[in-house]
Design goal:
alpha+beta; Aminopeptidase; five-stranded mixed sheet; binds coenzyme A
């Protein structure tokens, strides 16, 4: 396993199915906090990970601690007809946020996207949230080409 200079965290490496239970637990804990305040159960979190991993063009990466536990992970898919590399989930464990791991996973995703021939990397997040600040800091901006729309039907 490649490790960084201080050996606290690995470099980004592929996310494996066997990582999903630990990553679902990480996901549940990370989104329980503000501003998300989600109350996903472990089973719901696992179902979310399974769902994104089942997409065509799926790519997943993790960073692990020196003990081998996932510290954060990213799930994405390359929508090749649009040359769009879409980030579906990016989650850093609460204890390891603010230490550059999200930045490293995004840099890795961008490198993979470029190698695949992507024209852009896209994602959706909550407006006026720490996540929006994080992505803006990495050069992401609201799309000038369109507006995200939804309609409540239940
Ligand atoms: C958002 C998230 C992915 C960022 O990852 P991270 O590893 O904590 O962020 P980094 O340490 O790489 O931060 C890089 C920069 O982002 C910005 N940033 C990160 N967290 C921030 C926060 N809470 N508020 C404002 N800016 C923030 C800062 O500019 C930071 O630079 P700095 O370290 O020089 O201050 C991570 O905090 C997380 O998993 N949060 C909970 C789940 C979530 O919101 N996921 C994204 C949903 S789409």
């Amino acid at each position: 396993m490649p490790v960084t200079e201080n050996a606290r965290f690995s470099d980004p490496v592929p996310l494996l199915r066997e990582d999903f239970p630990a990553c679902a637990d990480l996901y549940r804990r990370a989104f329980a906090g503000s501003p998300w305040n989600e109350q996903w159960t472990q089973d719901q979190s696992l179902a979310i990970l399974d769902f994104f991993a089942a997409h065509p063009g799926y790519q997943g990466y993790k960073i692990v601690t020196a003990a081998g536990e996932p510290a954060g992970f990213l799930m994405a898919r390359y929508i090749f007809p649009f040359r769009d590399f879409r980030i579906d989930e990016l989650v850093i464990a609460p204890a390891f946020q603010g230490q550059g791991l999200g930045t490293r996973l995004m840099a890795h995703a961008e490198a993979v996207a470029a190698a695949l021939g992507a024209e852009k990397v896209s994602l959706r997040t909550q407006a006026q949230s720490p996540a929006e600040e994080f992505y803006r800091g990495l050069g992401y901006d609201a799309s000038a080409k369109g507006v995200h729309m939804d309609k409540r039907i239940a």
